[in-house]
Each structure stands twice: as structure tokens, then as C-alpha cells.
Amino acid sequence: MMISQRLTICVIVVFGLLEVQSVTDLYLLGLFPMEGAWYGGRSLLASVQMGLDHINGRSDILPGYRLNIMWNDTKCNPGHGTNVMYELLYSAPTKIMIIGAACSAVSQATSQASHNWNIVQISYASVSPALSDKTRFPKFFRVSAPDVTVNPSRIEIMKQFNWNRIATIHQSLELFSAVTTDLVARLKDENMTLVTSEIFSNDPSLQVESLKNQDARIIVGGFYQDMARKVFCEAYKNDLYGPRYQWIVVGWWDDEWWSIEDDSITCTPEEVATAAEGYIATGIVYLNPVQEAGIGGITPDDFLEEYGIRTNHEVLFGAVMAPQGYDAAWAVALGLHDTMEQLAASGSSKGLEDFDYHDSELTEMVFESMKRVSFTGVRGALSFNDNFDPVGMVQIDRKQGGVKQKVGFYHPDGESGNKLQWSSSSPLVWEGGSPPKDATQSIDSPQRVSLAVYGTMCTLSAIGIIVAIVFLIINSIYRNVRIIKMSSPLLNNLILLGCIFSYAAVFMQALQPDPEALFCRLNAFSLTIGFSMAFGALFSKTWRVHAIFTNVQLKKKVVKDSQLIIMTMGLVLINSIILIVWMVVDPLYEEAHESKSEEKDGGDTIVHYQHFICDSEKKIYFLVTLYGIQGLLLIFGCFLAWETRKVKIPVLNDSQNIGICIYNVVVLSVIGVTLTMVLEAQPELQYAFTSCFIILGTSMTQGIIFVPKLLKLRQSRKAGSEDTEDEYTGRNNGGTRTEVTAIEDKKAIELREELNVTKAKLSAMEKMVKDLKNEKIKENIITEEGSTA
Ligand SMILES: NCCCC(=O)O
């Protein structure tokens, strides 16, 4: 080698050494969690170090300076983290800025104190909204956007899928409660319903169960990923997953957080993965989706490649946020570079290396420089807003087909209605074919009587009414004909009127909602009046037979029709008064009752079948009173009918038929009332049965009372004589109906009737005497046999 060449090399080496020696070291204080709830310190330290290496390799950034980091493990614990910070602050050399912490609680504790050392702090990972409070954390910057930033994107997603009932569950840390408080306020602004807001500290089992009990379908969760495994394990146990549920969680958990074996839970990773399938994660964008070279001269892919080499391609916890570590290092460098330039421009003799913890002037310069930082990093464009938080896009991920996929972005500055952008390469896939509903759809299915059944019953009733009217007409036309006259036509008319009222009750059935309960009231009135009128008349007639038959003193006992009519109408009046009082003091209303419920659409819809009951507060008292009166009447009526069962007195005409009617009404009423109560929950069946019993009882009553009369009337009309029937009159005057009515005055009829009654009693007495005689003879025989023996 030539001497001149050797000299040249020596000069280069000397100058090189001089240049190396002229580099001034600046020290950063690093806070990294290597354990605890979020222990991504290793992955973030690697990316920060990568950033510092790139910065130190650049001659245009902080020329003459070299950035170094002195760090320690915060354990994601605010107490420990603060202690670590003190130790680093009080050990030489002086640190010019703090990078960290990661866990928000540690960032809060340290940055609340660090500004007292006139030191600016920047976090690469903390997301708590609380850290945006500049009165508490005046010199705190961060490259990770607070988690509230993602709330507008969540609201936008909810609106898009028509989710209005939202539940939340979060870990009891300010980081998560602040996000939830912000979300709840936004839900309120959007008129959405907060189903429940569950908070847990270490064991979410009760809270997840409560979500299930309250039919929460869209659930927003805020917790660290160790708790995520617990929450989704509980969700698995409570069946709170699958196509009917949508979980929306934070976006900064690791990619395969569900597959980690976790001794603190009783679920397998597969079970956690099953429960987590389909969850949506909203987080800020951690890696620029555009492959552009940023401030470090590298694209996002270049970053990943070099980062992979530096970490030996290990899957490190928290690596998803690694780009933020790189960008944080650059933010620090650019801030200090700006300060350096400011110092130079101001002609100050100070350099960055002159910083000490009492130098508030230099701190203010660094602080102002940091506010101005704006660059494109590996996570995209980065600048700080008024709270020194970064501004950025939101990324939407979803676990689909077992892997986390990037399914969309939210652009906060996008046009309204166009802020959400769904990916076409990884579209949303809904397990059930469509997005879940925000609640179990509850459908009320009112069960009313069908038109077919109603029509059939009304037709039968109408026929019954027509027949009753025909009977009424015949009864009126032939009221003076003996056969009609002797069975008290006025009372019979009352029976027919009662029958018409009873038939009419069949029409009083609401086929549509009847909030005024008009049909309830009409039904109660027509049935009660109908029953008391018809049965009252039957009862009074039986009572007369009984009164005559049991009048053994052969004293004249005349019970006039008018008395019986008063008796019947008295009963109608009493029942009507009770009903009127009922309707006035305690009006009826139509109340829906659930008959049964049925799950449909795989449990997404519950159909509540409803039947309607005419109800009122004191209904029971009025019913007991009315049923009590009618019940006594029925019992007494039965007794009278039984007592008079052997009376076959032509003059009392239809006494036996009336007895049959009473038994018939009693039996049908008892069965009818019982069925009405039993079939309450089956409105159509109840109506059909009740109507059948009303129609049957009423038709039988009017049939038994009137058909024989009409037949006899027809016979007598055919024979041309009305009195050909000895059975009824006991005589035959051979005249026609017109002749008879013409020749017999009212007095004569009454006298003959009285005579007939007396005859009847006489024959009854004779029978009694005969029976007594027979008894006597029997006794004598028995006595004689006894003495002979
Ligand atoms: N982003 C990871 C750390 C979360 C927090 O404690 O802010």
C-alpha cells in the first residue's frame, strides 16, 4: 500500500473516531409491562428499539445525537410502575422523555407525577379515555387513540343492522368504564335502549348470566383479553353465543387470544373459540392499510418483515400494537428534533443534552414541539389533537370461520351515511343467514273466536229466536183457547222472552278488540235477564203446582198468574240491579291473558297466544252474588219439580213438562258454567261449548213447553173442536173454539177451573186415605202373624 493511501485511511479513521465521539447520547425512560393483565412489553420494546435504530441511523434526524432507552418492567401495575419510574428518574443519566406506559392504569399513575419532573411522556399503547384529561395528565401524549374513539363506529354499525337494544359488560377499571359511559351517552342520543350495564372485577359468571336473563342480544364488552377468556367461557356455559348474539369488543386483543390454554377457566380453548365465533372488534388502525413508505422510509410490509426478523418470528403477546411502538419512537425523535431546531434558531447556547428536571423552559419547548409533530408512520398518518391523542381511522375485525378477519373500516371524517366501509375481500358472514335481532321478537297473537264458529252459533241462535217469536205469536193469537189459556200464556210469554234474551247472548261475542268491553256487558245482561226471566217463570209455575198440591186442607188456594209474573219480574229486577251496580261501581274491561307461548325462528321469536277475559276488580263478589241467587233458585226449582213429579192434573196443564225443563236447565247450567271456567284459555272452544249449552237449554225449554201445546192445538183444530181432549179439560162440550169463547164468560171459566182444582185435590186426598187404609191393613196382618207365632 502506498504511503499516501495509508495517510488517507488514517485521516478517515481519525475523523471517523472524532465523529463518533461527537455524538451525544440522549436517554429516554422506558416503561414496559412484561407481566400482568396486558404484558405486551416485549413486543413493544422490540418495535420501539427498531424505531430508535432507524432514527439513529439517519443523519437528518437529531444530527449529533443518539437516542437510547433505559427501561424497566411495570408489571402492568400502577404502584410498581410508578416505583420503577422513580428509580429510573433518580438514576443517572437524566432522561429527556418517557416512553410508556402500556397499561392505562400505569400511564395514569406515572403521567400524573412525571410532569413534576418537567418531563414529557408519550405512551405507545394506553387507550383509556381518562388519559385525555389534560388537567390530570398535562404533559401526556399517546400514539394509541383512546378507546372512546371507536364508539362512533360502534353506533354506526348498530344503526346499520337495526340494533336498538344494547347491553354492556365491562371490567371494573376506569379504562373500560369511561368507554362504557361514553357509549351509553351516545346510545341515549340515538334513542337506543340500554338493556343492562354489567360490571365485574374478576369473575364475570353472574354478570353473563344476568345478560342472558335480560335477553341481551347485542353485547358490547370492555375487558382485557385474560378476562375475555373468562367472559366467553361463561357465555359458552350460558349459551350466550351463536347466530342470535353479537358481541362487540375492543380491537387490541391478540389475533388468537381464544386459543391460549388458560388454567383460570373451566372451558377448553375450543369452547372459548366457539363462544367467540362471530364477535366484532373495533379498534384503531394499527398498521397502515396503504403500502406507502412512511417517515422511516419503510412500508407497512417492510416493517412487518424487519420486525419478524428482530423477534425471531415469535408470536409475541401484544404484537398487534407493535407498529405503535415504532411510531412512538419517531414521534419522540421528531419532537426533539424540532426542539433542537428551535434552540438553534433562537441562538440559545443550550442543547438537548443540557436538559435537567428543573428546566421547565426546555420542557415547554419539547412540549410545544411534540404538539406540532405530524408524520406518516407505519400505522398511517399521525398527528395529535387538542388532548394530545392521535386522530385516525377505525378498523373493524370479525372472527369468522375461526380466524380474525379485517371486515371493514370506519372513517370518522367520512360523509354521513358513508363512514362505514365494508371489505369486499372479507365480507361479513352471518351464521344464521342474517344479522342477529337485538331482542327476542315478542309477538302477541290474540285468539278470538273464528268467524265460522261465530257464524254457525249465531245462525242456530237466530233460528231459535225466530222459533221463539213464532211461539210468541201463536201464544198471543190463541191465548184464549183453553189449551193455551190454561197454561198461563203470559207466563209462557215470559219464558219465550227469556229464551230470546238467552239466544241473544250468543251474539254478544267480541271478534275484534273491545276495549270498552261492550260485548262483555251486553253478554252479561242478556244472559242474566234471559235466564232469570225464563227460569223465573218456570220456577214460579212449578211453585204454584207445589202450592196447590201441598194445600191439604182443601181450602181454596188460588195463585193468580199476575202474582207469578210479579214474582218472575222481581227476580229479573233483582238480577238487573246487581248487574247495574256492578257496571257502575266496577265496570268490566277486556283483559288479555296469555294462554300459551311458543318459540319460533329458532327461539328468535316468541308468540304469545292471548285470550281475552271480561274482568273487573270486584268481579268475584258480583259473580258469587249472581251465581248464588241463580244457584239457590236452581236448587229450589229442582226440589219443587221433584216434589210435584207425580202431579198429573189436566187443569195444571204443563206441570210435568215444566219439571222436565227445570231439571234440564239445572243440568245444562251447571255443565255450561263449569265448561266456561275450564275452557277459559281456549276462547273458541269456550264460546262454542257455552253457546251450544245456551242454545240447547233454551231450545229444549221452549220445545218441551210449547211443542206439545202446538200439537194438541193442531189436533183440536183439525177435529174442529177445541175441547175434544178430555185429558186436558175433563169434559167435552162439543162446541168449537169460537162457540166456547162466545158462550162462556170469564166467571164461568174461573169457576170450572176452581172446581177442577178441588177435584184434583179430592182425588189426591182419596189416594192418601186409600194408602193409609192399605198401611193399616198391612199393620194388622203383621200384628196377627206376630201373635199367632
Ligand atoms: N392497549 C393495551 C393496553 C391497554 C390499556 O391498558 O390501555
Automatic annotation (TrEMBL):
One of its GO terms (molecular function) is G protein-coupled GABA receptor activity. CDD domains: 7tmC_GABA-B-like, PBP1_GABAb_receptor. GO terms for biological process: gamma-aminobutyric acid signaling pathway. Keywords: Cell membrane, G-protein coupled receptor, Glycoprotein, Membrane, Receptor, Signal, Transducer, Transmembrane, Transmembrane helix. InterPro entries: ANF_lig-bd_rcpt, GPCR3_GABA-B, GPCR_3_C, Peripla_BP_I. It is a multi-pass membrane protein. Residues 460-713 form the G-protein coupled receptors family 3 profile domain. The keyword Transmembrane applies. It is found in: Cell membrane. GO terms for cellular component: G protein-coupled receptor heterodimeric complex. PANTHER family: GABA-B RECEPTOR, METABOTROPIC GABA-B RECEPTOR SUBTYPE 3, ISOFORM A. This is Gamma-aminobutyric acid type B receptor subunit 2.
